[in-house]
Structure formats: structure tokens, C-alpha cells
Amino acid sequence: MDKSPEAFRTISEVADELDLPQHVLRFWETRFNQIKPMKRGGGRRYYRPDDVELLRGIRHLLYDQGYTIKGAQKLLRQNGPKFVIAIGAGDVETVEALAAKAAEEKARKSARRSPEEKTKAREPEDDRDDQLVGQAKSPSSRRLFGFGQTSEPPATGGGKMAEDDRALLQEALYDLLECKRILDQARS
């Protein structure tokens, strides 16, 4: 029995539809705050049709267009979820219209800025955020315990991990998943 297009989807249904593992969808929830499935008892996720379309757009950016996660986040931040949904659907007219609207909004905001803000805006941005896969990135300045760090790890009470350590591990996980994605893409 097929569900109606407006029906909510479980994580397994979305994973099958987008040809992605479920853990990737869970990981993307941590990286893209626009992805907010409804969670029911026991943590079960139910994705709205717009959530599925946004995931489709993100998948297209990452897997087909070769964007990094940071690049996709930047596109979402600059243009909004409707833009990424339109990209995933292949709706060129909507993509162009939304991009023009975002450019107009940016110009309007720029006109309202103070002279100090305009000077700061002219300073070069860090364009590494929108790098495509395959372009060289500068080496990471992060240091994980055991890799170039000589001091002992900070002690935490009650068996809980310190927030900084958790953030470092989360970044390491992101790097590993990004490497896996690049390797998988190179193999196919």
C-alpha cells in the first residue's frame, strides 16, 4: 500500500527513497538545523514531505554537485530551504527566482549598514566554506588528544564527557564521514 504524498515518512522510508543509510540522515540532522523531523515516543522520527524534499536537495548538493557540508550549509543560510528544495527538484525557474530574491535582500541589507559595517564587509571572506570536493583545503589546526597533544585530557566528573571534548569528537566524526563520502564518490 502506497502512502499519499502528504503522509509523514519514517526514517527507513526516507532512507530507501533517497538511497541513503539511516545514520547519514541522523548525522545531517546535527549539521543542518533546518532538518527537524517530528519525534514520537522512543525517539522515532517522522519526516514531513517538506523535510524529505529538503533532504533530497541536500543530497543533490553533496553527492551530485560535490559540495562540502559547509558549502551546503552556506547555501541554506544565504538562500533558505526553498532554494535547496528547488535545486533537489530540478526546478531551475524557482532556483533563479529565489537566488535573485536573496541577492536583492542582501543588497537591501548592505544599503542599511553603517560605514563601519561596510568596511568590515569588504574584508575578504573565508571562501573555504563553499569549496567543492576535490579542491585542496588548508590543513586543520585542530588537535585531538593523542595526535600532537602532549597534555593529559581534562578530567570530567561523573563519567560525563567535557563539552569541548564532545565537540572535538563530533568534528572528527564529521571529517571521517566526509572522507568516506569522498572515497565512495571516487570509487563509483
Characterization of this structure:
InterPro entries: DNA-bd_dom_put_sf, MerR-type_HTH_dom, MerR_fam. This is MerR family transcriptional regulator. GO terms for molecular function: DNA binding; DNA-binding transcription factor activity. This protein is mostly helical and 188 residues long. The chain is built from 8 helices and 3 strands, in the order βααββαααααα. The protein has a 3-stranded antiparallel beta sheet. Helix 5 packs antiparallel against helix 6. The longest helix has 25 residues.
Summarize the structure.
The chain is mainly α and 188 residues long. It has helices spanning 11-18, 22-31, 49-64, 69-79, 81-89, 92-112, 115-122, 163-187; strands spanning 9-10, 38-39, 45-47.
Lay out the secondary structure:
Layout: E1 9-10, H1 11-18, H2 22-31, E2 38-39, E3 45-47, H3 49-64, H4 69-79, H5 81-89, H6 92-112, H7 115-122, H8 163-187
Antiparallel strand pairs: 1-3, 2-3
